[in-house]
Amino acid sequence: MCAMRSIDGRAIAKTISAEVSSAATQLSFEGITPTLAVVVPTRDESTAWYVRSIERTAARVGVTCRTVRLEDPSGDELARQLDVLSRDDSVHGIICQTPLPNGVTLTQMGEHIDVDKDIDGANPASLGRLAAGVDTFAPATAAAVTEILRREEIPLAGKQVVIVGRSTVVGKPAALLLLNENATVTVCHSRTEDLAQVCARADVVVAAVGKAHMITREYVAPGAVVIDVGTNPTDDGLVGDVDLDSMREVISAATPVPGGVGPVTTIQLMQHTVRAAANV
Ligand code: NAP
Questions:
Q1: Among 194, 135, 131, 206, which residue's Cα sits nearest to residue 166?
Q2: Mean pLDDT on 17-26
Q3: Atom of ligand 1 at shortest range from CA of 214
Q4: How far is the centre of ligand 1, averaged over its atoms, from the C-alpha of 191 (Å)?
Q5: Against a cut of 0.85, is the pTM above it?
Q6: Which residues of 46-84 are buried (b: 16+ CB within 10 A; e: fewer)?
Q7: CA atoms within a 13 Å half-sphere pointing along the CA-CB vector of 27
Q8: Nearest of 192, 216, 201 to residue 160 by alpha carbon
Q9: 167 CA → ligand 1 middle, Å
Q10: How far from 202 is each of 40, 104, 163, CA to CA, in Å?
């Protein structure tokens, strides 16, 4: 029997905050104020909450956050705004919040974000650069998964990592990042056969499905590490994709929801912005 360690995402985020803050201070001595533009094309309340948390985190680490709110923009208006910010030398990082205007995809809008400022990996060119091993910004959530595993000193080289989910914002970039760490990576999705058995072979399971508590005891091997990316609103509040209660006697470590991947993702945006500012 194995006692599960709960990985404290907030503590990891605090450590990264101190590093980012010190790098931002260093840049300010050189006359550079790291600046993040957050484009908000919606009045959606859950987005507003997330934007406020980005603004607070930015203020804490010395990143200037410029929130650009657009009232029900068309796709063309949103694209034009992203083009303007891409050309603005005082802006180092750009993110575009969802939901987007009807009929518009993040991939389409991402193409209007300069890759050097694409600190959340929305431009398909950033994913291509990641695949090609060129220095670039991965989507913050995918980067957070690798950062957590690295800081928790979870061995990855030669290990079996199974990712459930193949989205361009989480599953695919996480697979590329973990491949770079020399893990043997399997990416699963809704058509994967015998999903539980595939996951149960893994040293590390990354759940990025978007289905509350879908990953249960039968999906994990004894001693496995489980990273839960899922954030699913339910009547009981926000829950992950992983049913931790069914497996805490079996696995070695896991990220909780909330308090796991989420806080590390937000600070990752700041880390990327400061890196982008230093690259100028
Ligand atoms: P997504 O675009 O909806 O992708 C979900 C993936 O899960 C797809 O690849 C889908 O397969 C797969 N899937 C769905 N049902 C499945 C099933 N029954 N068995 C196996 N695979 C299944 O979602 P996402 O944007 O990647 O987000 C995933 C989760 O992470 C969501 O809960 C989201 O809220 C959360 N998230 C958290 C953060 C954070 O900061 N913590 C950031 C971003 C996202 P197909 O490709 O075959 O459809």
A1: 206
A2: 98
A3: 18
A4: 13
A5: yes
A6: eeeebbeebbebbeebbbbbbebeeeebebeebbebbee
A7: 24
A8: 201
A9: 6
A10: 38, 37, 9
